[in-house]
Design goal:
By secondary structure, the protein is an alpha/beta fold. It has one domain (about 5-255): Rossmann fold. The protein contains nine helices and seven strands, in the order βαβαβαβαβαβαααβα. Strands 3-2-1-4-5-6-7 form a seven-stranded parallel β-sheet, sandwiched between helices. β2, α2 (about 35-45) and β3 form a beta-alpha-beta unit. α1 (about 15-25) packs across α8, α3 runs parallel beside α4 (about 95-120) and α4 (about 95-120) runs parallel beside α5. The structure holds nicotinamide-adenine-dinucleotide. Nicotinamide-adenine-dinucleotide binds near residues 33, 38, 56 and 80.
């Protein structure tokens, strides 16, 4: 039986790699994007296993029509479409704020709930939402993006709670410094790349494949008892919050015999 996967933001970057790995894993993929040329080029390269559509995840009518057009309920939905809008909160335009929230958070909500109705009728499935380490830790000039991506983490928990009894598992992935898609321009600067890489405990930037492999794992039966979770695919960055904390010798004497 054909198993359908829906991947949003599939026309570029990480999304296009998720599509490739999903096809390798045996899915037929509905590849959605607002970038008509990007998603059409991917479908023409990948053949029958990839069916492209122009879908704006922030537009409920567009999402509803695309879900209704699927021949079967999807087994896997990957909410990967995303935009970044940088700027300090004091001066960030309301349009930029709305754009980040509309695509990253509202888009994840609309696609998930349209799909979940069909998935529950069909007996279940898996949803994987792409958040970010920016949804876990604040970073300069990224307030709209971080707020939207933190929202994705809590939305993931709510959907897991509401739809678990319908057989739908919902998890999230929080990618770190990935050398693909929207971060390619940052990492193209050798000095920026060197400095950023030096902050990663595993000593390298992540790849789109690192993210896609985790997405496919969370979508698979190997993750059958996982729901509501967020996995940081970040080479260890988010566990290093205290890494640069000043550590005078007295700190290491605390708790030792003879110390206060
Ligand atoms: N690259 C990174 O370092 C990184 C790190 C953490 C999280 N992420 C997240 O990974 C996901 C993929 O990002 P990427 O790096 O591949 O960037 P990208 O810009 O290459 O891909 C994003 C895709 O989303 C599409 N998109 C934008 N608005 C849309 C809409 N309204 N409806 C449908 N599609 C829309 C774009 O056309 C594009 O194809 C995003 O959610 C991003 O926030 C990326």
């Amino acid at each position: 039986m054909t198993q359908w996967a829906v991947v949003t933001g599939a026309g570029n970057g990480i999304g296009s790699v998720i599509v490739r790995l999903a096809i390798k894993a045996g899915y037929r993929v509905a590849a959605w994007d607002v970038d008509a040329a990007g998603v059409a080029a991917l479908a023409s390269e990948l053949g029958d296993e990839c069916v492209s559509s122009v879908v704006d995840v922030a537009d409920e009518d567009s999402v509803r029509a695309a879900i209704d057009a699927l021949p079967e309920a999807p087994s896997l939905v990957v909410n990967n479409a995303g935009v970044v809008r940088f700027g300090p909160l004091l001066t960030l335009s309301a349009a930029d704020w709305r754009s980040a929230v509309d695509v990253n958070l509202t888009g994840t909500f609309l696609v998930s709930r349209c799909a979940a109705g069909r998935m529950i009728e069909a007996g279940g499935g898996a949803i994987v939402n792409i958040s970010s380490i920016n949804g876990i830790a604040a970073s300069p000039n990224a307030g709209a993006y971080t707020a939207s991506k933190a929202g994705v983490i809590m939305l993931t928990q709510h959907m897991a709670l509401e739809w678990g009894s319908g057989g739908v598992r919902v998890n999230a992935v929080a990618p770190g410094l990935i050398n693909a898609g929207m971060s390619e321009a940052i990492n193209a600067d050798p000095e920026a790349r060197r400095l950023r890489q030096a902050r990663v405990p595993l000593g390298r930037l992540g790849t789109a494949e690192d993210v896609a492999e985790t997405v496919l794992f969370l979508g698979s039966d190997k993750a059958a008892y996982l729901t509501g979770q967020t996995l940081a695919v970040d080479g260890g960055i988010t566990v290093g919050a205290l890494d640069k904390m000043p550590r005078p010798a007295v700190v290491d004497s605390v708790g030792l015999d003879g110390a206060r």
